[in-house]
Known about the structure:
Strand 1 and strand 2 form a beta hairpin. Strands 1-2 form a two-stranded antiparallel ribbon. The chain is built from 4 helices and 2 strands, in the order H-H-H-E-E-H. By secondary structure, the protein is mainly alpha-helical. The radius of gyration is 19 Å and the shape is elongated. Helix 1 (13-38) packs antiparallel against helix 2 (43-68), helix 2 (43-68) packs across helix 3 (79-109) and helix 3 (79-109) runs antiparallel to helix 4 (130-166). 69% of the residues lie in helices and 3% in strands.
Amino acid sequence: MNNANSNVSKWSVSSRIFHWISAALLLATWIMILLYENLDSNLFIGYHKAFGVSLLFWMIARVINRVFTKAPPPLAMPKWQMLISQLSHFALYAILIAMPMVGLLMAVYGGRPVDIFGIFQIPVLVTPDRGLARFYNNLHTEIIWPMIIGFTVLHIAAALYHQFVKKDNLIARMK
């Protein structure tokens, strides 16, 4: 490991908590949809929706935290890499908000309230519209889904590149 970078500045504790719980909520949401698609139980689609809405609220809180929390100084890297990093992080935040928001719209326009772990329900406050429900379904599954996969893979690949190729200890900033 490069000694010059062994004492990298970390993200704040709140930013690290938001990061890792976001990852856990995203993973739980993915697992629930995989279980729903592969097992004969509607239980998992309910959990998928509940985890998705939880991720939406969590991401809104995360954005608020990010606005009020100072980022650590950037590591030395070419300007083009810094620009790609900033744009991809912005895109990942936007997609992690858009995906559950569109899923929620799909459900309510489909006339289905969304149960949040049996604690409360998000009621249908719109006139059900199958055409809009289909539109949001297509947006959710065919546009945003591949984007979220792509940007998540990019994010993880970049972190691994920094850790194992550049050896600049970037991952330590989020531990």
